[in-house]
């Protein structure tokens, strides 16, 4: 709860989403069709992230959140490892700085693909922090291998079409791990 309150106070949800929205807006099928797209934000914490998406032109009636806890009617209760949605439900999945908390990232990635429509887009962002810089904090930690984009793409390689954006952390240095790709089925 303290972590979520800190994120709400410093506008963390807006910054997380913004890091993914920038490259997403460069993709024509996203930019030109924002009001028509069914969007899922995985782990938004609060409605702030969903409102941020709406501020970029996504239709609020077509934007959903999925989180473990929420009192918002815009955020469904559920687990990213077993989402309460039918196959091929969403045009766009945004998972900003949440996959890092998964205990089975391969399963979560497969679940993202399952609920994404053919030709839909998945955008994921995480941060890698080297062991020596983490201190005692082991929550939300990526391994050295998970500082590389291909580790995640390999989980769902058969469903990866075009990779629009990829940015891995520099070798054993703190950095962002961000990737955006099309889903083929």
What is the secondary structure topology, with strand pairs?
Layout: H1 2-9, H2 12-25, H3 28-31, E1 39-42, H4 47-55, E2 63-67, E3 75-77, E4 90-96, H5 105-115, E5 116-128, H6 131-134, H7 149-155, E6 160-167, E7 175-183
Parallel strand pairs: 1-2, 1-4, 2-3, 4-5
Antiparallel strand pairs: 5-7, 6-7
Helix pairs in contact: 2-4
Give your account of this protein's structure.
The relative contact order is 0.15. The protein is an alpha/beta fold. A seven-stranded mixed β-sheet has the order 3-2-1-4-5-7-6. Helix content is 31%, strand content 26%. Strand 6 (160-167) and strand 7 (175-183) form a beta hairpin. The N and C termini lie far apart (38 Å). Helix 2 (12-25) runs parallel beside helix 4. It is globular, with a radius of gyration of 15 Å. It has seven helices and seven strands. The chain has helices at residues 2-9, 12-25, 28-31, 47-55, 105-115, 131-134, 149-155, and strands at residues 39-42, 63-67, 75-77, 90-96, 116-128, 160-167, 175-183. The longest helix is centred in the N-terminal third of the chain and has 14 residues, at 12-25.
């Amino acid at each position: 709860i303290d972590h979520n309150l800190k994120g709400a106070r410093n506008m963390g949800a807006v910054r997380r989403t913004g890091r993914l929205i920038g490259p997403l807006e460069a993709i024509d099928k996203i930019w030109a069709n924002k009001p028509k797209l069914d969007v899922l934000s995985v782990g938004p914490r609060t409605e702030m992230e969903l409102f941020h998406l709406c501020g970029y032109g996504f239709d609020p009636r077509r934007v959903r959140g999925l989180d473990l806890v929420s009192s918002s009617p815009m955020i469904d209760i559920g687990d990213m490892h077993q989402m309460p949605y039918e196959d091929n439900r969403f045009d766009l999945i945004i998972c900003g700085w949440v996959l890092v908390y998964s205990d089975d990232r391969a399963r979560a990635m497969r679940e993202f693909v399952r609920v994404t429509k053919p030709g839909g887009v998945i955008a994921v962002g995480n941060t890698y922090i080297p062991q020596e810089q983490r201190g005692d904090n082991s929550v939300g930690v990526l391994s050295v291998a998970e500082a590389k984009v291909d580790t995640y793409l390999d989980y769902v390689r058969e469903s990866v079409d075009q990779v629009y954006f990829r940015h891995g952390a520099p070798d054993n240095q703190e950095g962002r791990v961000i990737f955006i790709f099309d889903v083929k089925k």
